[in-house]
Amino acid sequence: MARPIKLRKVCCLPESNKFGPLDSSSDHKAHINMEIDEYEAIRLIDLEGFSQEECAIQMNISRATVQRIYMEARKKLAESLVYGKVLILEGGEYHLCDGLGTGCGHGCHRNRNRGPCRGNIKNR
After folding, report:
1. Residue 121 CA to chain centroid, in angstroms?
2. How crowded is the C-beta side of 97, counted as CA atoms within 13 Å?
3. Residue 11 CB: number of other CB atoms within 10 A?
4. Which of 4, 15, 25, 34 is most exposed by smallest CB count within 10 Å?
5. Which of 19, 115, 3, 106 has the alpha carbon at shortest distance from 61?
6. Does some domain include residue 69?
7. How many CA atoms, within 13 angstroms, populate the side-chain half-sphere of residue 81?
8. What's the structural domain count of the chain?
9. H/E element holding 75?
10. How many other β-carbons are positioned within 10 Å of the β-carbon of residue 60?
11. Distance CA 69, CA 65 (A)
12. Distant-in-sequence, close-in-space partners of 4: CB < 8 Å, separation ≥ 6
């Protein structure tokens, strides 16, 4: 029997969930789907400056899982940039933090005054 998937802790959903070239078409082949947990790994490692170990603690998963998620997310970002594909952020196996600072570290957007957070939205 397969091991159940452990939900990844995400502190805040992205402000926008669609990125790409301004002249993008509606062709489905021109879309790439990045899951919310992949977005969170990119945010924590590349924007907040976390190590993969710190990111793993923040997301409540193993470092090996963070590495796998991060590599896949970077590949999707590169494909979007190089081939001009639209990047859509949605889905994935995650849960949002409670926003009360319980168990969240310094990378939690809900504990900052950085603008609105779409944290009340459930998994899509």
Report:
1. 14
2. 23
3. 23
4. 4
5. 3
6. yes
7. 6
8. 1
9. helix 63-83
10. 13
11. 6
12. none
**Structural domain that includes position 53:** 29-111
Q: Residue 85: which pLDDT band, with cuts at 50, 70 and 90?
A: very high
Q: Does residue 46 belong to any structural domain of this protein?
A: yes
Do 31 and 80 meet the contact criterion of CB atoms below 8 Å apart? no
Is residue 39 in a domain? yes
Cα diameter, the chain: 46
Helix (H, G, I), strand (E, B) or coil at 18: strand
Flag whether pLDDT at 57 surpasses 80: yes
Instruction: Pick the closest to residue 43 from 54, 32, 31 (CA basis).
Output: 54
Pairing mode, strands 8-10 and 18-19: unpaired
What is the domain-level CATH number for residue 55?
Answer: 1.10.10
Q: Give pLDDT tens digits for 19-47.
A: 988 876 656 567 999 999 999 999 999 99
Query: Token digits for 102?
Result: 């319980």
